[in-house]
Amino acid sequence: MAESRIDAKTKVFGLLGNPVGHSMSPFMHNIFLEQCGINGAYMAFAVEKENIGAAVRGMHALGIQGANVTIPHKEAVIPYLCGMSKAAQACGAVNTLIYTPEGYYGDNTDGAGLLAALEAKNGWKAEGQNILILGAGGAAKGVSVAMALQGAAKIGIANRTAEKAELLAKQIAELSDTRTDVISMQELQKPEVYQEYSTIVNTTSLGMAPKVDDMVPVCIDALQPHHLVVDLIYNPLETKLLRLAREQGAQTASGLGMFIYQGVLAFEKWNGVRPDTASIEEQLIQRLTR
Ligand code: NAP
After folding, report:
1. 1 pLDDT more than 70
2. CB 157 within 8 A of CB 183
3. Domain pair 11-108+258-289 / 111-254, same fold
4. Which of 49, 74, 121, 125 is catalytic?
5. Given ligand 1 and candidates 164, 203, 256, which is best to mutate, with the most ligand atoms within 8 Å of its CB?
């Protein structure tokens, strides 16, 4: 029998969410831990909404060194933290808990993760860009705040619930010089809307497995080779939106890069070392497509 890596000195890391059974975070972080020679283990914890405070306090009492937080707890953990980064404060959501003796410090690496992935893989920076964000939920907030703070020229927001798009546009305008616009779902079907934008980012859950035929009503015919279409979804690796955009000749980027980099940034905050991103993408693709 192979010797277990786990012993009495193993540091524990984890994911708080519900459900968590589909998450690729344990797979990725355990590879990172091994790669960096850290005696650690990363586990997934399904936590009911009413137990989130008890879970955070219990984790701290046990000395768990760090955790990621996912749906539906990204906002609910906030009252149980000892402090928060500017990124987490700006988007009102936490995806990373960092152990301190006083309690967990909350951070949010989602927006920075997407920016790092787009820069590494597409040579893309938000500075000076006109960006159309589809959706106005938690991920939209993290991503659009990070893009505004990196100097985006304009951010347009289209969301099913228009009030949420308006609120997000107001928040962006309050913390940056980025111009904002709110676009209705009807306007989204007009080709002329796309002339103004270089980058289109789907932050809605439309198209995520198992409902892979769903799609935000984007006017695909209006897309051109200079457009970069990004989907935060990474399961499937190529959503219907990305497939149609690619067939139309636009550039595309899946959510896998964001997933990798939000994890890399969290791992670095816990362990002080940056894991290697070269081989993890291929390993995740193999795991997701097997
Ligand atoms: P969320 O807060 O629940 O927001 C969901 C968004 O999708 C809202 O804008 C919602 O519109 C929209 N939406 C949902 N169903 C819709 C429908 N039937 N028609 C039109 N719009 C619909 O979720 P989230 O945390 O932002 O996550 C959104 C997506 O991002 C998920 O697919 C998640 O997996 C992905 N994500 C990926 C990463 C990564 O690392 N790659 C990280 C974070 C999130 P309303 O406001 O009108 O309800």
Report:
1. no
2. yes
3. yes
4. 74
5. 203
CATH class of the domain defined by 11-108+258-289: alpha beta
Domain ranges of the chain: 11-108+258-289, 111-254
User: Could you confirm whether 74 is annotated as catalytic?
Assistant: yes
Instruction: Give the pLDDT of residue 177.
Output: 97
What residue owns the CA closest to ligand 1's atom 2?
A: 137
**Ligand 1, pocket residues at CB < 6 Å:** 71, 110, 135-140, 159-161, 164, 203-206, 208, 232-234, 255, 258-259, 262
**Quick check: 29 pLDDT over 90?**
yes
- Which helix (H) or strand (E) element contains residue 217? none
Task: State whether CATH 3.40.50.720 applies to domain 111-254.
Answer: yes
Are the C-beta atoms of 49 and 20 separated by less than 8 Å?
no
Q: What is the pLDDT of residues 167-216, one digit of tens each?
A: 999 999 999 999 999 999 999 999 999 999 999 999 999 999 999 999 99
Name the H helices within 14-74.
Answer: 25-35, 52-61
199 neighbors 131 (Cβ within 8 angstroms): yes
CA nearest ligand 1 atom 1, residue: 137
